[in-house]
Amino acid sequence: MQFPVKDINGKQVSTVDLPADIFGIAKDDLNVGLMHQAVVRQQANARLGTHKTKTRSENNRTTAKLYRQKGTGRARHGSRNAPIFVGGGIAHGPIPHKYTKALPKKMHRAALRHALSSLVHDGQLILVDNGLNGVAPKTKAMAGVLKALTGDHSTLVVLAERNENVERSVRNLAHAYYLRASYLNVRDLLQYDRVVLPLDALEIVKQWLGTEA
Question: Is residue 125 part of a domain?
Fold first, then answer.
């Protein structure tokens, strides 16, 4: 499938043939459940799981008996650490544990293919020539380039490799984010209104997600 390629000024300069197995999945065949599973797995794996409350045995309060056992007319109590008291221990509170989920490699790659195809269907994918690497290392210059390419939409810029100038320029923009092609993930692809994909990054995506990979 032919797809337009723009320069950093937002003008179409050429076209490129996108592999149908990555970018051309039919809209009716898009697996929303698979993409959702990939996003849930990524969000779960990002959780630290360090939440913790103290039980009555871990709470450091006085061990003295509150009041005498009999004759007060009140219920019998022997510890201020009991959960019913303010400042006491917490009953059945959270304890540290892992939230990690597994996803087979084939399913992960398939989810990326479906996400990229959905971007094409929704007009959210923008291919740009490699002139992006030559943009002046200034936030103002990068803001002008992204505005020409995407308007005022939030933007994900995919890079083929580490580019300190581009990364620093994009990092200062409130509604833009950069990501290397080797770290491509479904959550970031679907989180932004537009995805800017340079041609050199496209080659990495094709090598990674092609059916022969």
Answer: yes
Q: Give the Cα-Cα-Cα angle 137, 140, 144 (nearest 5 degrees).
A: 105
Cα–Cα distances in angstroms (integers) from residue 65 to residues 61, 83, 159, in the given order:
11, 15, 66
Judged against a pLDDT cut of 60, whether residue 141 lies above it is answered with: yes
Question: Looking up tokens 């939440």, which residue turns up?
Answer: 51
Compute the distance between CA of residue 105 and CA of residue 187 in angstroms, rounded to an integer: 16
The amino acid present at 98, given as its one-letter code, is K
Domain count, the chain: 1
Mean pLDDT over the full length of the chain: 92
Residue 58 lies inside a defined structural domain of this protein: no
Taking each helix axis from N to C end, the angle separating 164-171 and 139-150, rounded to the nearest 10 degrees, works out to: 80
Q: Is the pLDDT score of 187 beyond 80?
A: yes
Residue 143 in domain:
yes
Distance CA 80, CA 71 (A): 19
